[in-house]
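Sat 14:20. Reprocessing the chain from the morning session after the first attempt stalled halfway. Input below, unchanged.
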Amino acid sequence: MRYLIGRYHEIALKGRNQWRFVDQLRHNLRALFADVGLGKMRGEGPRLIVEIPDAIADAVVIERAALVFGLQNFSLSYEVPLEIEAIVREAIARARAHPARTFRVTTRRGDKRFAMNSMEVDREVGAAVHEALGYAVDLHNPELVISIEILAHAAFVSAGKIPGAGGLPIGVSGRALALLSGGIDSPVAAYRMMRRGLKLDFVHFHAHPLVSAASREKACELAAHLTRYQAKSTLALVAFGNYQREIVASSLRPLRVILYRRLMVRIACALAAKTGATALVTGESLGQVASQTLDNMAVIENSSNLAILRPLVGSDKNEIVEQARTLGTFETSILPDEDCCTLFVPAHPETHARIAEVEAAEARLDIARMVAEAVAAAEVRRFAYPARSARTLRSAPTEPPH
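Finished this time. Tokens:
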């Protein structure tokens, strides 16, 4: 029988609350394997042992388990009786399936009643693998690591450990709404907060039909990519171009970007209320553009009735680009589009806005109407991983928080 053995690190430090994190981890695993199903799950110390049905290919298990936040690492393991002969046979079988020139054996003896200690098991199994397959032992930089875990009722043998996504299981930290611009920064910001256990929905502000629909398409592609980590997501597409026109007609040029941002935040807060989200997530990085000076960020945040989380605030562009490449969103983010953020932007935007001046400009606008209209007209798309039939709704997301 094959087993996915997932090992957690940070969860193990949660003391009496650990059960809540483990329960969420179980829920998230089942969600990501919903189309194929998993067998029984059980906890053994700092690890989760999951039965894998024969019908699921190893590659599918590895691909999806690597997306589950909360797992430090994992392995595909095979259960054998608590007998050294059985352990040796399975170790040779695992090594034969992963050809290598060098190897080592690493044993963890969770059950100290087993007759041999860890070093003795390592030596016995290592000698047998070397004799059977001719692989050379390398304790420092082997091509293959045979892992053996000896527990109370059985031993588990695997060919190495696979790095997990780390972090905390999505859902344990609450729910938030991420502003997804279509650029490089916002998907990285969303990923970082998902890794800290936040379940996210997304909102994208676009200027279609005043410009092309390219930014909408990019936002959908990015939302679909990020959904792989949490199984389900919603993306609200908000047509913002006409509201920008209203702002342009009634305000001074330097303040326009600040007014755009404050209106976006208000609309996002109204959408968040429909999903139970208690925070917004943005890709802002201090000093990166004119609207992201300390003064301007404070004035923009003043318009929000929710906390605004800025996981990239202290990151430089090179760091963000590198993580976007690793995450797999970079190539989509750099596709050309016509973002609403570049529509009607003044040549010299204000970098040190004052709240009194901004509020005076907003007094000439019907903010309440603009927010209500934008929320009512939002086009909401739902995403699922593994992929299911897509649906498009003409209302704000209503999925209750998990």
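Residues 2-163 form a domain with the VC0802-like fold (CATH 3.30.2130.30).
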